[in-house]
Amino acid sequence: MPSAKILVVDDDPDFVEIMRTILEAHDYEVVTAANGNQALVQVAAHHPDLMILDIMMSTVLDGLDVSQKLSEDPDARFMPVIMVSSIAETPYAHVFPMEEQPHMDAWLSKPVDPKTLLNKVAEFLS
Questions:
Q1: Domain count of the chain?
Q2: Given 12, 34, 36, 100, which residue has the most CB atoms within 10 angstroms?
């Protein structure tokens, strides 16, 4: 029986599959979404225990939009969010809003180290 349900949100199918493989090997149930709109639908349908959320998807700040909407949702606002991104290494780094605190519990840069990911997931699900 899965220990928790995790929503992985990323537009890169290879990244999603890597996350799925790592998480399922540690008895987590994985639900996926390829963009912010799909993520919000999955949150409502599956009530995940934690979200792994990319920033740059259908728009440069798609993940930040999702995190903001989650923070305003009384049913989802307490779900831990681990943001993953390579935005710092892209020409879009300057658009990341440094002056406001995004709704997230942790930040991991891509490529994500599996051990670090699993430690963060366990930390927020304990």
A1: 1
A2: 36
